[in-house]
Amino acid sequence: MRVSRWVLAAGVAALVAAVVVGTALGGGKAPTAAKAVFKAGLVGDVGSFNDNGFNKNQVLGIKAAAKAIHGKAYTYDSHSSNDYQPNFQHAVADGNKLIIAAGFLLGDTVKAFAQQYPNVKFAITDDPVAAIGGFKNEEGITYAAEQSGCLVGVLAAKQAKSMGTKKIGAVAGIKLPSVDSWIAGYQFCAKKAVKGTKTLIQYSNSFTDQAACSNLAQNEIGSGAQVIFQVAGLCGDGALKEASKLGKWGIGVDSDEYKVAKRILTSGIKKTYTGVYDTVVATSKGHFKGGKNLVFNLKNDGVGVGKITPQITKKHPAWVKLMKQFKSKIVHHKLKVPAVLP
């Protein structure tokens, strides 16, 4: 039997219409909407992302977190405080659901933007949420740096005494609570480990000028300091090199700085990588702790001590044992280390 091409065309048209109607009525599967990608941004402070630890590790943390959650990470470096507001504006415009400020100096900017954009979540490293307004879309990423400072202070005091004096030094950057907390713990436990230990403290007012920190280290060593604890970021690396050059010992900060100079006793570690990573992952899963602080300390391995020179581990294992005893007391709440200088 021969079928007219007009009849055949009409049949095909009817079939197509039936499929369309069936789909509209739920008889077929509609295309699934793509799941929105979680975006997180990190705004740097004036220390720049090219330092040896504090900022650089935050960059590594946000990138690793984005990879783990199949999201996207954006970084906005700041070369001066004039970059803070434009960088935050760009971060908002890029659609970030979470924007992290890399340090204490960004506190005022975070507070302003958190008020202006209540539907965006904000977090800040090294600043409690109460200091930036305490809003429900803010979270503090804080560290008990004084606990790590305590441990390196024990070794510093022991080393200084073995070199003939009871003087140790601290070369700091800008006088901020997040800087002073390191020194408060350092000074407190050094005195406990070796009674009579004196800590010399000077500020460079910079986190980048290595020559300035080198000069301060030279001054403190000239006044009898045998060990220099740098708490000044990239600037402080100049202090470590100067201490080594003059035959003294240096202690690094934030990340393991054992290779920065030849004579590094150890380093006080602040795991900013972990803080940023955990914050991004938790927020992407709906676990943002608005109006509260995340606290990283010795107990949860958020702070600690870097590599210790063999000059101590091999020749003075009793010093390491003593340091571990201090750690145990802190973790078990038998020793309260101050976070503020007297």
Quick rundown:
It is built from 11 helices and 12 strands.
Walk me through this protein's architecture.
Helix content is 43%, strand content 18%. The chain is globular, with a radius of gyration of 27 Å. The longest helix has 20 residues, at 5-24. The protein folds into two domains: 39-143 and 273-296, Response regulator (Rossmann fold, 3-Layer(aba) Sandwich), CATH 3.40.50; 145-270 and 309-331, 3-Layer(aba) Sandwich (Rossmann fold), CATH 3.40.50.2300. It is built from eleven helices and twelve strands. The termini are far apart. A six-stranded parallel sheet has the order 2-1-3-4-5-11, with helices on both faces. It has a six-stranded mixed sheet with strand order 7-6-8-9-10-12, with helices on both faces. Mean pLDDT is 91; it is low at 1-28.
